[in-house]
Automatic annotation (TrEMBL):
Keyword Calcium: no
Name the UniProt record assigns to this protein: VWFA domain-containing protein
Organism: Gordonia amarae NBRC 15530
Signal peptide (from-to): 1-30
Entry keyword Signal: yes
PROSITE patterns (alphabetical): VWFA
Keywords: Membrane, Signal, Transmembrane, Transmembrane helix
Highest classification ranks of the organism: Bacteria, Bacillati, Actinomycetota, Actinomycetes, Mycobacteriales
Length: 946
């Protein structure tokens, strides 16, 4: 097997239970160490409730690394897969969505994942396609925001952050910045930028810092980095350390490294992203991964991704891809039926009762779901292949097959067995199917084995049974608790199943598929021995604001006495020096005494000398004294947590309150204006633009002496600045700005302005202001407007066509037709409006006689026009602005045009039909730069298009 470089690195980070050879036969190997995703899945299998926060980068660099918003496609795919996982397992899974760059923004609060809510979640993710304008990639703000979101509400024990970014921790140099981890540090120089990076890293990674706050809160972090042309794997070393606890080139990060904090994956492109996100879609059940080739024209054995199903399997999800487009995925059933999935469109099929649904999340990948294990065709050897349309070109294919076992282990004594420190307890286990019904392990068609262990808070696992074969799973086994201290623990049950071998439709025996081990983790409590008191398993101080003393109580159940021995702080915010835990019951003589069956409370205090923001996590060592004399006390570890918060600035709050009281009646109106402002943006869609100089002769619009038409070499370049929605756009001297207008109702609009020019929208002729300026809809795509110099020729104008990046020739032809039909009507009205705002003594005087063939028109003093100026009509390539239409030039030209950069700052090259590349001398209508003034006695007027 020959994995791709990046993909191989990602797979190495993910633990896969079985690899597949080129022939598709699974080979077993030693059980791997548990990953972060495994931890989350094991927790979900036991608790059946959890949270996943999708944390998505919004920084500016994404316009280059992810121009097609692959992160959005992959995140939506993950959300859909998680929805399927929740439905299949009956788990209650809440999802929230947040973005980060130089700020942290919660885009969607906690939402229970279901078919009904999936649409609103994917719609929120769609919004990230237009969010790539952030100035920083601030890991600290991202993780701190995620910490707060994870803590909000009634937080379950199973929590995971799925964190995506395209770059390293970095900041943009600017005039000011206010970072909570670097108070007073500006961002106004390269030196200070480096200081800011170090300050953020120190606050994140110091012992007990922000990273440890998250880890010690049992929040799992899974990070995915998108590499690319200008982004290297080493750029993600800090992120990898944050997620996994591994030491990288950036050094160690955090002290809390057990259990495994999380995972890090690296992706190169959309397909890599899909595969890495897909690994999160069945927590606790890693996919079976294989790589092989493709088949030419028809199905072949060497191109098969094989898997065998039987009644122990509940459903199958497959993500597969080829290394080039144009291949057709084919699913081959046990009886040889081929289901071809072509056309890049989602579809469904049914084979022998097996329901098959498929979609294409990218141009080279296919996602398949198989259900209905009761169907006759379910059991047997299946295969997925990719067919190439020709026999010459080779292709590589890969797959991740999630086979959800319909079986899981369960502890049969959960409700009636007490675990006491020092005792030996009989433990009995069983298996249940997806419907929750207990089954006889010997009925499993293939092979199965069960491993069970108890993991106390100390972390040292005690084996109850290892690799117990299916015939002996139902037998009881002893658990020795002689060395286990009272307190919280985890009962871990791992079931390994291999489906029964089967023959394919050609009679070839295919070995059964070894499913990824299914682990269930149940939180349990090991009680003290009989005759000792019990205490709660956790202490939560809640949220404490400011400085002072926070208090919390532990419930104590008798008989016996309890006192606080000592405490350990594992993680705390920056500036939280001096935190201290205390209790009046700090010695045996001061213990809290409780009678048999009675309940009392042990009060614990947390001293907070300085107001800070962040979580405090640690453990309390509590001693439990028996009710009988002569017995020694025993210790139990109780984890504690507190959320510290700086108080509200009372001065600022008072000012805000006064302002609110004064402006109270206006607030609803301001909210309407704010909502209108927030939505007034030019959509972030690809746009092409052309500026064309035209003449209107009666009812005819001409270009270069011929009827208006568009050349084949036009509309070939995209307008920059539309990677996301925006409030302003530059078309090379023509500015588009959004406006909300005076009314709080309705929608905003776009105003097109160019110095010295009046403007009007296309067929409607809409205009605003005294100039006036063209008024366009927010969706400027596939529209046009006209610009006109009222001091110039009355029949000359510049038409600006705005065409969507995905529009075809028919759209361009339609706009040209509209110009021909409506410009003869719009232009005279526009000129009349513009002249009203020009003093009468400055208005041009129309001279009799034919127009100037060089563009001077019939206005002004009748002097000859500059023969080196722009032609009277023609086309501007790219976004080159229109030439200035001014009064007739005063005097003859003073030399040939100078050579220089393309006119008007056109980033796509000069315009062979527009103004000359260099500024001509002379004439009051042009002022190209220093020393290039207008003609004698006439002040030069700045030409914004030169």
């Amino acid at each position: 097997m020959s994995p791709r470089t990046r993909f191989g690195a990602g797979v190495a980070a993910i633990v896969v239970a079985f690899l597949t050879t080129l022939t598709g036969v699974p080979l077993a190997h030693a059980a791997p160490e548990q990953t972060g995703v495994d931890r989350f899945g094991s927790c979900m299998a036991g608790a059946k409730t959890g949270r996943v926060l999708l944390l998505v980068d919004e920084s500016r660099s994404l316009t280059g690394t992810d121009p097609d918003a692959a992160r959005v496609t992959a995140a939506k795919f993950l959300t859909e897969q998680l929805s399927t996982y929740a439905a299949d397992t009956g788990a209650k899974l809440d999802v929230a969505i947040a973005g980060f760059s130089d700020t942290y923004s919660e885009r969607k609060g906690w939402t229970r994942l279901s078919k009904d809510s999936l649409g609103s979640l994917t719609s929120t993710l769609d919004g990230f396609a237009d969010r790539a304008g952030g100035t920083d990639t601030d890991y600290w703000l991202a993780l701190d925001g995620a910490r707060k979101t994870m803590r909000s509400g009634d937080a379950p024990s199973c929590r995971m952050i799925a964190w995506f970014t395209d770059g390293e921790l970095d900041f943009t140099i600017r005039s000011n910045a206010d970072k909570p981890y670097a108070p007073g540090v500006p961002l106004d120089s390269e030196q200070n930028r480096k200081k800011m990076v170090e300050a953020a890293k120190t606050s994140l990674c110091r012992p007990g810092g922000l990273v440890d706050q998250v880890r010690s809160s049992d929040i799992i972090t899974v990070a995915i980095g998108l590499a690319g042309k200008d982004v290297k794997a080493a750029d993600f070393d800090l992120l990898k350390s944050i997620a996994t606890g591994e030491q990288t080139s950036t050094g160690p990060c955090g002290d809390v490294r057990s259990p495994v904090p999380g995972d890090f994956y690296l992706a190169d492109d959309i397909d890599d992203l899909l595969f890495e996100f897909d690994k999160l879609s069945t927590p606790g059940q890693p996919p079976l991964t294989s790589e092989t080739g493709a088949c030419a024209v028809k199905v072949c054995d060497e191109g098969k991704h094989r898997f065998v199903l039987d009644s122990s399997v509940g459903s199958v999800n497959i993500l597969a891809s080829a290394d080039r487009a144009g291949l057709t995925p084919v699913l081959v059933s046990p009886d040889g039926t081929e289901t071809r999935m072509a056309g890049d469109k989602a579809g469904t099929a049914e084979v022998g009762g097996v329901r098959i649904g498929y979609s294409f999340p990218s141009g080279k990948a296919v996602s398949i779901r198989m259900t209905n294990p009761q169907a006759g065709q379910w059991r047997g050897a299946w295969a997925l292949v990719f067919l190439a349309p020709d026999s010459e070109a080779a292709a590589k294919t890969r797959s991740q097959i999630h086979i959800r076992g319909d079986l899981s282990a369960t502890w049969l004594g959960e409700k009636n067995t007490a675990l006491h420190s020092g005792d030996t307890v009989d433990m009995k286990f069983g298996l249940r199917n997806g419907a929750g019904k207990q089954i006889d392990p010997t009925d499993i068609p293939g092979t199965a084995s069960l491993t069970t262990e108890l993991v106390p808070a100390s972390g040292r696992a005690i084996t109850i049974g290892r690799d117990i074969p299916k015939a002996r799973i139902a037998r009881s086994r002893p658990l020795d608790l002689g060395s286990v201290a009272p307190g919280r623990a985890t009962l871990r049950m791992t079931l390994s199943v291999t489906t029964a071998s089967a023959r394919d439709h050609e009679g070839v025996l295919v070995q059964g598929t070894a499913l990824s081990p299914s682990t269930v983790e149940l939180p349990v409590t090991v009680d003290p021995p009989v005759g000792y008191p019990k205490v709660d398993g956790k202490l939560d101080f809640g949220t404490f604001e400011g400085e002072g003393t926070a208090t919390a109580t532990l419930k104590v159940t008798g008989p016996g006495c309890v006192w606080l021995d000592k405490s350990t702080i594992v993680a705390a915010p920056d500036g939280a020096d001096g935190l201290a835990i205390s209790s009046d019951a700090s010695a045996k003589e001061k213990c809290v005494k409780v009678a048999e069956g009675a309940e009392r409370e042990l009060t614990v205090r947390l001293a907070v000398p300085t107001a800070v923001n962040g979580d405090v996590n640690g453990t309390l060592r509590v001693l439990l004294g028996p009710d009988q004399a002569g017995e020694q006390p025993i210790a139990t570890e109780v984890p504690f947590t507190a959320a510290l918060q700086k108080p509200l600035n009372t001065t600022s709050f008072a000012i805000a309150l006064i302002v609110a009281l004064i402006l109270g009646p206006l607030i609803p109106l301001l909210v309407l204006y704010l909502a209108k402002w927030l939505t007034s943006r030019i959509p972030g869609r690809a746009l092409r633009a052309e500026q064309i100089q035209v003449r209107v002769d009666g009812s005819t619009v001409t270009r270069g002496g011929a009827p208006l038409a568009v050349r084949d070499d036009e509309f070939v370049r995209l307008v920059p600045g539309l990677a996301s929605s925006t409030r302003k756009l530059d078309l090379g001297g023509i500015a588009l700005h959004t406006r909300i207008g005076r009314s709080p109702f309705g929608t905003g609009y776009v105003v097109a302005t160019a110095p010295g020019m009046a403007g009007a929208a296309g067929r409607s002729g809409d205009r605003v202001g005294a100039t006036p300026d063209a008024r366009l809809p927010l969706a400027v795509h596939n529209s046009w407007f006209v610009l006109h110099d009222p001091r110039g020729p009355e029949n000359a104008a510049t038409v600006v066509l705005l065409v969507g990046g995905d529009a075809g020739r028919s759209v361009i032809d339609r706009l040209v037709t509209e110009v021909g039909e409506h410009l003869p009507r719009v232009l005279p009205g526009l000129r009349a409006d513009a002249l009203r705002n020009i003093p009468e003594n400055e208005r041009p005087v129309t001279q009799p006689g034919p127009g100037n063939p060089f563009g001077g028109g019939g206005t002004g003093g009748g002097a000859p026009a500059n023969p080196f100026g722009p032609p009277p009509s023609g086309g501007a390539g790219g976004f080159g602005p229109p030439p200035q239409q001014g009064p007739a030039q005063q005097g003859p030209p003073q030399g040939p045009p100078q050579q220089g950069p393309p006119a008007g700052g056109n980033p796509f090259g000069g315009n062979p039909y527009g103004p000359p590349a260099g500024p001509p001398s002379g004439g009051p209508g042009y002022q190209g730069g220093p020393g290039q003034q207008g003609g004698p006695g006439t002040p030069g007027r700045q030409n914004p298009f030169g």
